[in-house]
Design a protein that fits this description.
329 residues, 5-stranded antiparallel β-sheet, 11 strands, elongated
């Protein structure tokens, strides 16, 4: 069914709209067994589905404000009724009532079973998570490479604790330094910087930028994002650290239903690199712009790209970061 028509068993949505607009009560028979009617009661206001049932039938409480269920007797005959009580929902609810009637008369479900099946279907549609954007998929993959790499030297619990999961300015907080992770699928090592503060140190703590370059891999090479997540889950095992990991995954936008949508297999295009974010690193900062005389209040948002392709990295990379950025999963 669509918003403009139903199948041949039911009046179209436009016809239904005319019934409602007439402000007259209607019982619209639905052809089939058991006996069923779609009803409109403008004086309440209500629309609903009425299905003949046995005397001992019961009506479950849906717990929903605008959907009532009850057993009502008409001319001595008991009926199971589902009523929509908000007129603002009538047009959207009408196809659902028709679908419920079909589940009963064609699918053979009991009225209460058909009700739950219809509500479950709509809940699944309404709550189905959007897929991650390609940019977010790649970014999360890069961060998880570092989580997996830190699990070896730090242990899984401390690796998860170090991963800030986007809740603070920098992606990872280690004992001796902070780490920002950037990931690209381009041939050049170009990365988006999301703010003027993203590449600023926190106090006197050293800040490092880890740069990943990924590319798509063949069937027998690389791994999907869900593969990487499963690998890290197995590293962590059960317990509080696992709960923390799942919470941070959710904060990053991941849901396990994404597995079927995100099937790209990723591998490194080139070895990952790490750069100290110091005075020579190419970046824009609030302090630097303020010192140049620019009125920052007039620039509420800044997003820019840096190209690190030809930037020489230091040979004195901390061992912890070397280990973390070399993780293969």
């Amino acid at each position: 069914m669509t918003g403009s028509s139903t199948d041949k068993r039911h009046p179209s949505v436009e016809t239904f709209d005319r019934y409602v607009a007439s402000r007259a009560p209607y019982d619209l028979p639905v052809k089939g067994q058991p006996e069923a009617f779609l009803f409109i009661v403008p004086s309440k206001p209500e629309i609903g589905l009425r299905v003949r049932v046995d005397l001992d039938a019961e009506a479950p409480d849906t717990g929903l404000h605008n959907i009532l269920t009850r057993i009502a007797v008409h001319d001595g005959i008991p009926f199971f009724e589902v009523a929509i009580t908000s007129s603002a929902l009538f047009r959207d609810a009408y196809p659902l009532l028709c679908s419920m009637a079909d589940r009963i008369q064609i699918g053979g479900l009991a009225p209460s079973e058909a009700l739950w099946a219809t509500l479950d279907k709509m809940t699944a549609l309404l709550l189905a998570p959007d897929t991650l954007s390609r940019e977010r998929e790649v970014g999360l993959f890069g961060e998880l490479l570092v989580v997996g790499g830190l699990a070896g030297p730090l242990g899984a619990a401390k690796a998860v604790e170090a991963w800030r999961g986007g809740t603070e300015e920098h992606d990872f907080g280690l004992d001796a330094q902070d780490v920002e992770v950037k990931t690209t699928t381009g041939e050049r090592r170009r990365h988006w910087i999301e703010s003027l503060t993203q590449l600023e140190r926190t106090g006197d703590r050293p800040l490092w930028l880890v740069s990943h370059q990924l590319t798509t891999a063949g069937v027998d090479r690389g791994r999907t994002l869900s593969d990487l997540i499963d690998t890290i889950r197995s590293q962590i095992g059960p317990g509080p650290a696992r709960s923390g990991f799942e919470r941070k995954l959710a904060d990053a936008g991941w849901h396990d239903d994404h597995r079927e949508q995100l099937r790209t297999r990723w591998t490194r295009r080139f070895a990952s690199q790490a750069y100290p974010v110091d005075e020579t690193f190419p970046r824009l900062t609030e302090g630097g712009l303020r010192n140049s005389g620019i009125r920052l209040a007039a620039i509420p948002e800044v997003r820019y790209r840096v190209d690190l392709t030809d930037l020489t990295t230091t040979a004195d990379i901390p061992e912890m970061i070397k280990t973390a950025m070399g993780f293969e999963g």
